[in-house]
Amino acid sequence: MTILEDRPSNPAAGDHDRPIGHGRMQRKEDPRFVRGKGHYIDDIVLPGMLHGAILRAPVAHARLVSIDTTEALAHPKVLAVITGSDLQALGLAWAPTLSMDVQAVLVTDKVRFQGQEVAFVVAEDRYAARDALELIEVEYDVLPPVVDARKAMDPGAPVIRDDLEGRTDNHIFDWEAGNKAETDAVFASADVVVKQEIVYPRVHPAPMETCGAVADFDPIDGRLTLYETTQAPHAHRTLFAMVSGIPEHKIRVVSPDIGGGFGNKVGIYPGYILAVVGSIVTGKPVKWVEDRSENLMSTSFARDYIMQGEIAATKDGKILALRTNVLADHGAFNATAQPTKYPAGFFHIFTGSYDLAAAHCTVTGVYTNKAPGGVAYACSFRVTEAVYLVERMVDILARKLDMDPAELRLRNFIKKEQFPYANKTGWEYDSGDYEPTMRLSMKMAGYDELRREQKEKRERGELMGIGISFFTETVGAGPRKDMDILGLGMADGAELRIHPTGKAVVRISVQSQGQGHETTFAQIVAEEIGIPPEDIDVVHGDTDQTPFGLGTYGSRSTPVSGAAVALVARKVREKARFIAAAMLETRPEDLEWEKGRWFVKGDPSVGKTMAEIAMGAHGTVALPEGIDGNLDAEVTYDPPNLTFPFGAYICVVDVDPGTGHVKVRRFIAVDDCGTRINPMIIEGQIHGGLTDGVGMALMEIIEFDAEGNCLGGSFMDYLIPTAMEVPDWETGFTVTPSPHHPIGAKGVGESATVGSPPAVVNAVVDALAPFGVVHMDMPCTPARVWEAMQGRTRPPV
Amino acid sequence: MQIPAPFDYVRASSVDNALALLDRHGAESRVVAGGHSLLPMMKLRLARPDWLIDINDLFELDYLLVDGPVMRIGAMTRHTTLLESDDVRRLFPIICDAERVIADPIVRNRGTIGGSLCQADPAEDLSTVCHVLEAVAVVRGPAGERMLSMAEFHRGPYETAVAQNELLIEVRVPIRAGSGSAYEKVERRVGDWAVAAAGASVTLAGDGTISQVAVGLTAVGLDHNVTEVEAILVGQAPAETLFIEAGRLASLACDPLADQRGPIDYKRHLADELTRRVLRVSCSRAAASVSDITI
Lengths: 797, 295
Ligand SMILES: Cc1cc2nc3c(=O)[nH]c(=O)nc-3n(C[C@H](O)[C@H](O)[C@H](O)COP(=O)(O)OP(=O)(O)OC[C@H]3O[C@@H](n4cnc5c(N)ncnc54)[C@H](O)[C@@H]3O)c2cc1C
Hints:
GO molecular function (chain A): anaerobic carbon-monoxide dehydrogenase activity; copper ion binding; iron ion binding; molybdenum ion binding
Number of domains of chain B: 3
Region (Disordered) (chain A): 1-29
Radius of gyration of chain B: 19 Å
Cofactor (chain A): Mo-molybdopterin cytosine dinucleotide
Protein name (chain A): Carbon-monoxide dehydrogenase large subunit
Strand content of chain B: 15-25%
Strand order of the largest sheet of chain A: 3-7-1-14-11-12-13
Structural class of chain A: alpha+beta
Distance between the termini of chain A: 51 Å
Distance between the termini of chain B: 58 Å
Bound molecules: flavin-adenine dinucleotide
Domain Aldehyde oxidase/xanthine dehydrogenase a/b hammerhead (chain A): 35-144
Helix content of chain B: 25-40%
Largest sheet of chain B: 5 strands, antiparallel
Oligomer: heterodimer
């Protein structure tokens, strides 16, 4: 294993920039990935395995009149065709969603979105399964769809969820945070108030690997082994037990290598359940892997928030208050993944990085005839929408006040000494020091020079824009007292065993989809107990092998499981002290720790290494009372609070005045995620997230036509960015550790996705200032930018 | 994995063999060249041939040669070959301009000029280029070879004069001294099909006036050159005012549809804007090639 040298430290980072446990070490998982030896769902082949395929609805809203499966069943290679009525007989036609709603596994009564699951074919090979779909005859009675969320609550709008008792409209929930009266009062007396509708359109996570499962039900001992593309294997096991009636100890969920998640693989999709049913019905393992169009059309989307924003300030630029009303399009079933208490996720962090006198938000969720899901795509539970709202509003205010947007931000930041900071909607920000981060980004960008260049270019009719975004995230869900998903508290377990020869295995509940857990978690343990990371194996993704925990999403792995791992390592270290004392025939309190070794105070030559202690633990040394003969430990970590990473991003764009084409010329990203473990992995996360952000800002949108047809069902229509659309990223960092996390780490997986879209859009709007453009909605495609230049900005939905 | 409907597959060993196979397997057989248009359509089950006749072994159709007054381009010439050819860059910079923005390297390594022209996708770039260059298509069938102008060859979206039992063999492009050409495309993302694109070719006479000009548009509902521009440009010295007028005529001549790539007025605007740009570049390239010749 090569260990790269640390980069020279960043002078702005203060004393905390020493990375943890061998720092910039190459990823332990990479040798298998770069050699094409990763092992994904579709690589799994079991003896006698059959293949499933799903028939999907061609229309968005229709009553199911009849299904005829005779011809499909007559196909020589088809073993089973399962329909909604078959599932109904088993009590499996509907499954609970992560938001306490229900979702149809297969249509029984009515199609509610285009691409919804109608029937499942099990055949000897995937070709036959796919061919047989065309042999199923379905008759639909097409109904008018609800496509525009703004019209979902109109009187007379078709009621989508007539399956729910007493339902007479498409309303899902109303939710609010902050103090309305206080906020309204501040607004009423403010010098300046600006308003803007801001739309965050529906986008899709589009991981490289689509969703899939291999279900293997053993009819003899009643055991179900389910290989799944899941970011949350333990939560899935519990839900499968609850839904299927198979006892939980007979279910093993395995999440092998995962080709990207971004939230897309948090929910339980009908396909997974159908693979299980298929295996139960046929007595053979069944594989189901969706294709790209199925993934884009039917699995969880992200965003789809129509936000009415308002910001109040004094005329000299003190921001006083923010308020917003949000209309949230949740699709046909409320399948959003988020803590139960928060139907709009953590959107109420929309107060951002600013010290406000008041804030208030309301969110109304509605059903539409679109794919369900939501809160996918690296969003930290809707922090993406929140950051986009506040960072756009601040820019709009800066324009109104004729003030530099950097200056306006600097004047309004929460000050270092105000942390821990209680914001007006109920969060307690753990730590922050915003100004140095902002100033570092401006220095790296050469901010003043850029403004000068822009001025000159404007005089020549060239369009250059500079956009700033300063985000504060809230990640690491979360304290059990506040946060659960379907009643499961959001705490994470970890187990550490030191083998007799001093090699270790750490078992974690979270699952990696590219985040590098096998490296990061080994590094955390290495730092704590002084065993090199190469000697520490990280086991994850298999419920039979790992302790319970809620999974990887919302940037929670390092804040929650990272803490669990640090604590379990400390527990082992403490235990080692007792065993070392027994071996050295001294008292534990007479020993002192240096990385990897306990020694006698005042006599460093007398001591025991972790390997010696491990052998001792398993050997014949007489152990003190209460210490068992191993060097193992386990913990479950309940985070006392969330962590609040932040960052300053600056984007520079050039817009072609003749075509409206936007080129991102530079992007400067300074992130503060607290203590840094492996800086290379952090940078990788940032690079990916920034690319995501540029994609959303410039090209990504899942659109629907008036009939509810999904217009984003292939990569021809749903564009994702390539290396050609992004500049060389210029990254920097500051380090403000979390005071409550054992190693001060905050989580970074989603920071860049959350923080970058407003920087890009702010830059585009800034470039278009000569045309009087104050706001334009994403995606900033050439056509939409050109329309904005004509004074015809329009919402994308 | 997207799975096409069942089909049979055979590799042709020569042009004659391919024609015989097309004849034998009849209406539901199709040749596959680079496969970058046909296979995606099959995977979406929009195309369902019973037989695929693979012509990738027909190396005899993979060539680029300057032959007196024409460049002959074999139908199996890959996009990459066109992009990397020095002769092409020197004689027909419009082809390089276009190839640079057709798809991505993976597609360009396999996709062929023959497949592109026969696919005749309305947003396909090489059809416009061949129209502008006044290329001739050589088509062979059971009854022998036919030479077709682009106007005869290209019948509209997804429609060409190539019959089911024929093959496009070659594209012949006339070489003109003192000419310059250019192509520009607006795309939402690198590798995306055009929102709109324009191509131009200009030949300058000894006195610096325009002796020949052609302008074509892509993805805006026009299957032929913008012939209206010829009357105003031929015989004139290149001038910005003329390009502006030509752009205006191009925007009037096209007939775009609104879609996810943009509304109609934007596409008309691009026809205008891009026509001006490609005329400007073509004229300066032509002027440079004239001065090359005099040196
Ligand atoms: C992601 C992607 C992006 C793309 N972007 C662009 C773009 O921006 N601009 C652009 O112009 N193109 C684009 N293309 C299309 C690409 O250029 C294709 O290669 C081209 O359209 C077809 O060439 P082919 O050799 O792959 O043809 P095939 O797919 O093999 O064939 C296409 C059709 O032509 C027929 N055919 C092929 N060769 C012959 C022949 N010699 N005689 C008779 N019939 C024949 C086939 O039967 C078939 O019907 C893109 C393709 C992809 C996959």
